[in-house]
Amino acid sequence: MGGGKMIGVMMVMTMVVSVSSQDYGDALTKSILFFEGQRSGKLPSPRRVNWRKDSGMNDGKDVKVDLTGGYYDAGDNVKFNFPMAFTTTLLAWSVTKFGQFMDPDLQNALDAVRWGTDYLLKATSTPGTVFALVGDPFGDHNCWERPEDMDTPRTAYQVNTTSPGSEVSAEIAAALAAASIAFNASDSQYSQTLVTQAISVFDFADKNRGSYNDAIGSVVCPYYYCDGSGYMDELVWGAAWLYKATNNEYYWNYVQHTINNLPKYIKVMNTDGTLSYRDNFGEFGWDTKVAGINVLVSGWVLQKKLDPSPFVLDADRFVCTILPESPTKSVTYSPGGLLFKSGPSNMQHATTLSFLLVVYAGYSKRNRRQIQCGNVVVSPDRLVEVAKGQVNYILGKNPSGMSYMVGYGDKFPNRIHHRASSLPSMHAHPDRIDCHGGTSYFQTQHPNPNLLTGAVVGGPAADDSYPDSRANFSQSEPATYITAPLVGLLAYFKANS
User: Which residues are catalytic?
Assistant: First the structure.
């Protein structure tokens, strides 16, 4: 018995040493740098990602509106404003929640938020109109081309009073409201601009209800950015952020009144193209905001000792869908411990859901409460432990010993599905590379010539295998909404490890 106990102690000590060896500060710096590699528009000088140049400089010319700037969401050259707005919301939430742990990276994090909000202000500058997409996804996906060389159409697609898009509009309102909080201390004038526009855009989204699936679904739905959960969750999400930003009771009343109108199930597109349905309370991502609403709202419900129903109760239910030991767990875990849900780019679930676990752990700990999952009682520290396991897996504590963040550690993906990273830079190859001129670079087995530092890819398969293949975009493509919540997580673990 004594020998067995000693072996157990040694195993625990080994695990602790391995976990503590992660350099969360380095990973944080790199995760923020990733967003600079995703920038569209006129790039500032000097720039830290020096292989990227100006791109999309005529965006919006077809509608006589300046729509330059913003982010390419993933490895292509299209600006999908729905996931871009969610990315901006999560970056702002990361800053407001964990910014105190970000030095010396706080200013760079705020710059990342501002690059998103500056663009979203432009996209909502025309009364009665919200621009939801810039670029032609069909033309773009037919080419393997540097953003600096783009010659595919840069069509601006809009939603308006006759063809509404409440989900994209309300998510933009959430992003602007969340960012207004992030900038309140450092730039009060900009903060006021953001919240004023957030109020206006939310009002537009609420009074002109309808899904952008109907307005511009022909260009967003084939590319996984169809809204499968309806637009009501974005309206509640936007109102929740506006209440947090303004303390106006109108928005709190809106949240309380509307939360019970959300669909109980959401439609999910699986990797193989089939559809499945899941309970909404366990979902959080660019499409579905329900778990995020419940965690966010629980912060002030618990603080003010308000009625916990349904927010705290559903946040508890959400936690119980994640924890490995919970009898109501609805996610799966790979043999190496990575969280899995159906659909492409699985790593987005590992980062977004872990972010919620850490935020909710803080609220629960502050209010001296534990969480009951059937007959299992869970402490706030356990939520942090599960989230930390996911972060550590991403950074290399996995069966392959591979970091899934480009540029972090000794072993990471070299052939990511990303046009700018995989094609020679303008400096290395000044001559234009046309639409199909990049095909050979896509097909080669050589590593990408440009390091997109901080990019987190879609991740390994459910058996922990990772082929490192550009063609396998579901696993090898990075996305802004994968990394945005990781920024907050890394800041937290940098200071609390």
Answer: 417
